[in-house]
Amino acid sequence: MDRLFELGSEFWVAAAETLYMVALTLLIGGFFGLLLGIVLYATRPGSLLSSKAVFNVVNIVINFFRPIPFIIFIAAVQPFARYVIGTGIGNDALIFSLSIASSFAIARIVEQNLVTVPPGVVEAAKAMGAGPFRVLRTVVIPEALGPLILGYTFILVAIVDMTAMAGFIGGGGLGNFALVYGYRQFQPAITWAALLLIVVLVQTLQFLGNWLARKVMRR
Hints:
- By secondary structure, the protein is an all-alpha fold.
- The chain has helices at residues 2-6, 8-43, 52-65, 70-85, 91-114, 119-127, 132-143, 145-162, 174-183, 188-217.
- The protein is elongated, with a radius of gyration of 20 Å.
């Protein structure tokens, strides 16, 4: 326990690193995942901007990358990370890998939630003269907003879990802190402290996501 107090400042730095990685990943991956999901929904057969070619290409790309275990995905995209952001190691490289991986997962969640919007609602908006992009912006996305929030919350929790692999490429965060100072130095108190803080973080995010989704769906 004394060792945990000695590492108090490093512990909170690791917590801040985890929050930084999660927030930036959600911002980047969430944005591109939303775009990809909308493209999948809009171009699917019989949808607003039906295009078999575009739908098949995007669908195949997402299905190709989604099953890849994240630890392997990090190694696979490391050269690409060096080319794009100038480094293949550290927190920024992990955020780069996380953003790509999460965008594909989010795209599928967005598509699955958008297709649940009743076709009658979409047809009614089109009958009133709304164009495809206006229907997407003012009807489809607002109608699916509650489930979308729950989907993003699910991904957010998964991102917290995946940040534990930051140490694999020289990054930080609570997962790496637990491994370096807890597991490898035979200090179970440190491991459990990091674990409990991760649990608190996940529970807080899940509670906020559930609360916001309920609030939206009760409008």
